[in-house]
Amino acid sequence: MPVDDNDALIVPQCLDVQLEQGGAGTLTLHALTLRDEPDGLAVYAAFENDGNVVACDVEFKVWLYDKTGQQLGMFVSGLYTSHFYNYTTSDGTNLVAACASIGDVTMTRVGTMATDIAVADIGQVVYYYAYFDLPGATLIDALKVSQTNSQTTDGGVAYTGTMINDLSTTVSDPSVTVFPLNRVGRPLGIVSASDTSQVPAGGSWNFQTSAVNVSAADFAAFPSASFSN
After folding, report:
1. pLDDT, tens digit, for every residue of 69-102?
2. Antiparallel, parallel or unpaired: β 204-208 and 218-227
3. Residue in 131, 135, 86 with CA at minimum distance from that of residue 108
4. Do β-strands 105-111 and 156-165 pair in parallel, antiparallel, or remain unpaired?
5. Cβ burial 38-60 (10 Å sphere, 16+ → b, else e)
6. Pairing verdict, β 16-19 and 122-132
C-alpha cells in the first residue's frame, strides 16, 4: 500500500526496481528517486555498504525501461563517498581513493540529459554497480564537512558549512556536494559548491551551495578535492 512520499524509499512508489543479474553484493540499494528536471530525467540513488569489504571508486549503471518493457537507455555515474583511504600501487606510488567504508551510505545523481523521457514513462529500473577492492588500503583522516546548515533563499534551499582538510598536505579545487533527503534518507535533489583555491594542511574552506527547490527533512554532504601525490 502506498505511503506518503516523505516516508517512501522509492519514488514513484509503483516503480519496479531490479539489480542486474550477476550484480555485486556489497552495496544494498537503500533508496531511489526519479525526478523530472529541466535538462531531462534524473535518477537519484542511495546505497548502504552492508558487505564486508571497503568499496572504492564506485560506478553506478542504470537501465531505464518503459511500461511496455522497451529499453529507453543506459546511463552511468560515480557515487559520492565520505571516507578516504591511502593505498600503494604496484609501482610504489601512494594514492588516495574515495571509498564507502563498511556501514557507510553513498549517493549519486545520474543526469540522463534525455529531455524526451519523463518519470511518467518509466516502468522499470535495472541497476548495476562496480567498485575497486583495495587490499591493504588504510583509512585516513582526509576531508570532512562540519557546521553544515540549510538556509532558505529565493531559489529554494541552499547549504553552508566548512570543509576541513585533516591531511598533512595541501589540497586544491575543494568541493562539497549536498543531497537533500526525505524523512527516511531518500535523496531528493543535489546542490554543490566548489572553488579553485588551495586548502592547506589543517586548514578549512567555507562554502555555500547553490539552491534547490525541494522540501527536505535532512541532508547528506560529501567533500572532495584534488590530492597531491
Report:
1. 999 999 999 999 999 999 988 888 888 999 999 9
2. unpaired
3. 131
4. unpaired
5. eeebbbbbbbbbebebbbbebeb
6. parallel
